[in-house]
Amino acid sequence: TPGSSLPDPKDRAEVYREFTLAAHAIGNLQFVEAAERLKKVTTTDPGMTDAWNQYAQVLNRLGKDTEALDAYRQLLTRTPGAASALLDAATIYLKLNRLADARQHAELAVKGEPVTAHQLLAKIALADRNTELALKEATLAEQADPTLPYPDFIHGVILHDRAKQDPSKFAEALPYFQRAAEKIQ
Fold first, then answer.
1. Checking CA distances to 143, which of 23, 80, 155, 180 falls within 20 to 30 Å?
2. From its phi and psi, is residue 166 left (phi > 0), alpha (psi between -120 and 50) or beta?
3. 63: left (phi over 0), alpha (psi -120 to 50) or beta
4. Whole-angstrom Cα distance, residue 118 to residue 136?
5. Distance CA 155, CA 138 (A)
6. What is the Cα–Cα distance from 185 to 175, expressed in whole angstroms?
């Protein structure tokens, strides 16, 4: 902005170095090292949203769900409404069976990434055993991207889950899965 100045690049050299080394560690699948470096970066420069995003993803890869959620919260305070961060957080909430939180985050992401958000909302509805809502969300995902066979797939999943009680019913799910597979090819 007029009258303000940017930080001297020399003052940010160590942050840049740590971030670069973290990126190399990620590339080498050294997630523990990457997490340590990214923690340093986010502590030193809490406004660096790329570092928060990478940190959250690395923590997620390490199975540190609670810490990853904290990092996503930090990211979302700096970039409210960032659809990808909302969806990533929603996915972790789903994994933790915190369905209301998962749904809330996924719903907030619908405007930015409607296809992925509706797909995730369908999964959340399935986890909540709300098959009607799951099919509705699958249909909304397909409306956002007509190449997706998501309603057929979700219908197949519903029938497959029901067949676990009566194995003779597994065949009822097959046509839905076949239609979904044909649409992708």
1. 80
2. beta
3. left
4. 9
5. 9
6. 16
- pTM equals 0.87
| Percentage with pLDDT > 90 across the chain | 86
The answer to whether 109 and 90 are in contact (CB under 8 A) is: yes
Taking only the tens place, the pLDDT of each residue in 18-43 is 999 999 999 999 999 999 999 999 99
Closest Cα to residue 156, out of 129, 121, 140, 180? 180
Q: Which long-range contacts (CB under 8 A, 24 or more apart) does 18-22 make?
A: 18/44, 19/48, 19/50, 19/51, 22/51, 22/54, 22/58
Q: CA 28, CA 161: separation in Å to the nearest integer?
A: 39
pLDDT in tens, 73-130: 999 999 999 999 999 999 999 999 999 999 999 999 999 999 999 999 999 999 999 9
CA distance 168 to 72: 44
How far, in Å, CA of 134 to CA of 28, rounded? 38
- Give the amino acid at 63: G
Among 159, 164, 160, 139, which Cα is nearest to 149's?
A: 139
CB half-sphere exposure, 99, CA atoms < 13 A = 10
Rounded CA separation 92/3 (Å): 42
